[in-house]
Amino acid sequence: MDVKRVGIVGTGSFVPEHVLTNFDLEKMVDTTDEWIRTRTGIVERHVASRETSSSDLGVEAARQALKDSAIDPKEIDLIITATITPDMFFPSTACLIQSRLDVPHHIPSFDLSAACSGFVYALEVGRQFILNGTYKTILVVACDTLSKITDWKDRSTCVLLADGAGSAILKEVKGDFGILSTHLAADGRGQDLLHMPGGGSRYPATHETVERGLHFLKMKGNELFKIGVRLMARITRQALSECGLTEEDVSLLIMHQANIRILEAVAKRLEIPMEKVFVNIHKYGNTSAASCAIALDEAVREDRIKEGDIIVLCTMGAGLTWAAMVIRWGGIQMKGSR
Ligand code: ACO
Predict the structure, then answer these.
(1) Which atom of ligand 1 is the closest one to the Cα of 318?
(2) Total domains in the fold of the chain
(3) SS3 117
(4) Residue 97, domain extent
(5) Is the pLDDT of residue 1 over 80?
(6) CA 182/CA 322 separation, integer angstroms
(7) 69 lines ligand 1 (CB under 6 A)
(8) CATH classification of the domain holding 192
(9) 39: Cβ below 6 Å to ligand 1?
C-alpha cells in the first residue's frame, strides 16, 4: 500500500534592501569586524526600514513561493505563519498576509510561535493537515524582523540579529518522496535563556518597562550555544533513525543559521562534512524563523538540491524549542520561474 507523503512544491524568500555591515556596527557598539566574523561567521545582515514590518517581508516571500510552485493562489486552503515579531498582537500576521495575496479570502490563517524553530514547526503542522485530509495546499510563511526587538546598545546580541522571510508550499507528492519524518521538541524550563519579557500580559507596556529595556530580546548566548549543539545533533539523529536513515545518507544539512561555530560543532558531532552543510549566515545573520526557510530557498536556487537527495532541516531557538525534519527531495514539478 502506498504511503501518503507531503512535500515542498515551491519555495521563496525575501530580505529587506538595507545591508548593515560589521563595519557599520563598529561605529555603533564596542565591537570589531574581526570579532564578529571569527566568533559568529556573520559579515553582514539585512535590516528592515522603520516602515517595514514582518508581514511586508512575508508577503514578498509568499509571492515568490507561489510563483516558484506555479500553483494558482486560489488553490491555497490554509496559511500558517511562523513569527515571534508579529506586526501587532492581533490580528495575526497570517491574516495580514492573507489580505494581501490573491488567495481565497475565507481560508483559515493563523500564527505559530516557536521562535527560530517556527518554520519546521509550521511545516509539520501543515503536513499533518494534509495527511489527515483536511487541506490540500498549504502556504507556510516564516517571517521575522528581530531588528525591531534588538537592543542596539547590547553588543552581545545586536551583532547577531537580523530580518528576513522565507516561504514554502506544501502538497501531497507521489512516490517515496517528500517529508519522511519530523521530530519537534520543547523544554519550557529553558525560557530564560532567550526571551523578550515586556509587552505581553506579564509586563504590559509602561514607561517603566521601556526604561528597563524589557521590550528587547535577552539572550544567554554562551549557555544556549552549548545546549543548542547537543540538542540539534540529537534530534537530527532521531529524525533520521525514525525513517531508517543515518547521517551518511544526508545530502544537505540545512540548520538554523545562529552561529557558524554552532553549525561546525553540530556537523562534527554528526560526522557530516561541512561541504554537506548549507551556510549563508555570513550574508544574513540570525533571521529567527526565516533562517531555515531562506536557506532552503537559496539551496534550491543554487542547485544544491537534486531529485532524490536527503535534506535535513534542523533548528533550535527560544522556548526552548528544537526540531528536525528529513525530506527526500523530488516527486514534484517546480514549473514556475523567478
Ligand atoms: N564584540 C566584541 N566582544 C564581544 C561581543 C562583541 N559583539 N559580544 C560579546 N563580547 C565579549 C564578551 O563581553 C566577553 O568578554 P569578556 O571575556 O571580557 O567577558 C567575550 O566577548 C566572550 O563572550 P562570550 O559570550 O563567551 O562569547 P561567545 O564566544 O559565547 O560568543 C555568542 C557569543 C556569539 C552570542 C555565542 O554564544 C552564540 O552564538 N550563542 C548562541 C546564540 C543562539 O544560538 N541563539 C539561539 C537562537 S537565536 C533565536 O532563537 C532568536
Answers:
(1) 50
(2) 1
(3) helix
(4) 1-338
(5) no
(6) 11
(7) no
(8) 3.40.47.10
(9) yes
